[in-house]
Amino acid sequence: MAVGWIMGAWYHLKLTELDRNYMYATITVWCFDRLMRIVRIIYSGVKSNADVRFHEGDVVTLKMNYSNRWKHYPGCFVFIYILRPNRFWESHPFTVMVPPKPVESNKLQITFKVKNGLTKHTKDFLFSSCGEELSANIPILIEGPYGRYHNLHLYDSVVLIAGGIGVTSTYSYAYDLIKNCSNEKQRITFIWYMHDRTPLDWFSEELDLLRSDSRVTVRIFVKYKELASASRYVDDSNSGLGEKYFTVVSQEITATSSDKTEVATLVSEAVSRGDPRIAFLSCGPGRMNDDIRFTISKSLSSSKSRVDYFEESFSW
């Protein structure tokens, strides 16, 4: 499309005998951008491949081999090209995670919710070509990394709040704090809102890793169409996750019908603890982020702590 536009504009200026100096500048900037993107792809490895798996709830996970010339950092994202005949020219940005298993620490992981475009075509490919397992190994190209990093190591208390698939961003920060922060007194509160229980299936290993660190408190809120008790949720034998898993997390799961009420309560609790430096980081729907910002601003007047707010949003 860009090439077509440049050719059309060039021909138009030629016919009208207008100055083409601006076109030279436009072409130079565009070519430089393309060149740098190609360099990033080569740097990430031109022989990359990914193990792709579909999960209940319209979620797809990719675990990707890459060159290891650069290392994952919280907040980073990459553009993924899936090298299939009918989609190889398309790319899409995805937040990057590190797989929880130590044997896969040299890989990158992305998890996304199926929408339209590339994500929908990936799901359709798995359903049409991969049998009952709904998994495949496919060649890909990785362009990146991009994105900025918020240094949460400096805070006495860190509150990470995710809504839905936004957990891919907050988990990356929690993982980084667990692995790289030497402050043993730091408190990390990991809060996750979800519409149903299916994320607990495809995110169970990540939750286990967070729970293994004594500094981390995990809170999960499940929103029901019809509000049910937490015990009903925990004791559901059709979960597929097993009785042992639900016995462990039963104290962490709360059934809720109002994200806004729970957000206000949790933010107020974190601020009222009186830690000298508190950081909030949220990643979720716009309305949820708005509620968190509003609640934090209301709490500042009664707090002597330094409170900083960071936000990650999928708005590329």
Automatic annotation (TrEMBL):
Family affiliation: Belongs to the ferric reductase (FRE) family.
Entry GO CC: plasma membrane
Lineage of producing organism: Eukaryota, Fungi, Dikarya, Ascomycota, Saccharomycotina
MF terms in GO: ferric-chelate reductase activity
Classification via CDD domains: NOX_Duox_like_FAD_NADP
One Pfam family named in its UniProt record: NAD_binding_6
BP GO annotations: copper ion import; intracellular iron ion homeostasis; iron ion transport
Record keywords: Electron transport, Oxidoreductase, Transport
PROSITE patterns recorded: FAD_FR
Residues spanning the membrane: none
Keyword Lipid biosynthesis: no
Start and end residues of each FAD-binding FR-type domain: 28-152
The name this protein goes by in its record: Fre5p
InterPro entries documented for this protein: FAD-bd_8, FAD-bd_FR_type, Fe_red_NAD-bd_6, Ferric/Cupric_Reductase, FNR_nucleotide-bd
